[in-house]
Amino acid sequence: MPGVRRARLAALLDRYAPPLAFVALVLVWEGATRLLKIPSFLLPAPSAIVQALVATPLQVWAGHAFATLRVALMGYALAIVVSVPLAMAFASSRLLSRTLYPILVVVQSTPIVAVAPIIVVTLGASDLPRVVITFLITFFPIVVSTVAGLLATPEELIELSRSLRAGRAREMLHVRLPFALPYVFSALKIAITLSVIGAVVAEFVAAEQGLGFFIAFSTSYFKIPAAFAGLGVLVAISLILFRLVAFVQKRLAPWSLPKSER
Q1: Which DSSP string corresponds to 81-97?
Q2: pTM for the whole thing?
Q3: DSSP class of 254
Q4: In this structure, is the dihedral angle defined by the CA atoms of residues 124, 127, 128 and 129, taken in order, positive or negative?
Q5: Over the Cα atoms of the chain, what is R_g?
């Protein structure tokens, strides 16, 4: 019986520990701001953030959230379309990988915040520069993880496919790519959160709508609780998108997940 109780307690802790930790953090935050009398323009209390969230009309939130979500998803889709074939090309050709991979590292190492104004000046003030900035932040993890997954395919499987006279294309599509799916989905989960960050960075530089614009606008007028509320909406969008990618992986490739998550 004690063993059964311990198992139930462990299951309850496993299920409720994350929300309880979040609630405890919010309570400590609220108590600290009240006891230390921290001004709201320095660090607003959670209750002030909720008031700012409710005070802003729903249409305003919907308009800004949709603008950010549209740019994030377009940049994310573009990153997938470019990155996966590029990773397959890198895995197939050592010469191509040695030639282009350093260039990608240089592009990724360049601070996007410094490059973003140049991209906006070059491409104009439409959605295009914001999508390009989101793409630049998002594509690199997908390329790196997909290449790692493709090259991690066991040699026995490669030899077996070649003994059956499978061509390079079939070897890539039917052997390497399915084996690399856990790597690909891990990268997609990282990239979907990065896409939101990319969209917000682009909105900081040049935008008239979007949650990044809303946060920058609120901060410039010292409406810090509203800025925190915008930040909370961004976090909620990132979590929802992350869970959506996890759901797609569970539905389309459940075998790529650990047994405990299927």
Answers
A1: HHHHHHHHHHHH-HHHH
A2: 0.85
A3: G
A4: positive
A5: 23
